[in-house]
Request: fold
Amino acid sequence: LSGIVHISITILDRLGLKATASWFFTIDLIAPTITQVNPNLYVPSFKYPLHFSFSDTGSGVDPNTIRVSTNGNLFDINSPEIGFGSNSLVFVPSINYLDSALNIVTVTASDFSSNSAIPLTINFFVDGNAPQITFISPKSGSATNNLRPTIKIGVVDNQSGINPSSIVVSL
Reply:
């Protein structure tokens, strides 16, 4: 049995006067879900906002049960680091994420019927370093008589990697 339960009662007294009443309640056995909106494996700054969405088909997510744990620090809905509305959560840390180390963030919540969501844990690294560019050939400041010189450029990003579609070379 789940969903909305309607109850009604009719009763007569010994004189035949009738009273009726009805009410309803919901049986909610389905836990909410938490979904990661961002980030991927790398974030570009030490206080990068994390975005999560919540859904619940029953009684709705109870904001007072939301918890965000990041690297051992616990935050709740009353923490200024958390913004929640329309089933969306934004977490902006007041302390820096770990540099050059794995950051672990766990989000938990329950609905108004006390069904607990499966905790969502994400892992990521902070990559605050831009890619490195190396001019290989021709050497900067050199001269050539070749009208079609081979231009070689080295690019490297040892953390999040290079986005190939972002490379623009102009002459």
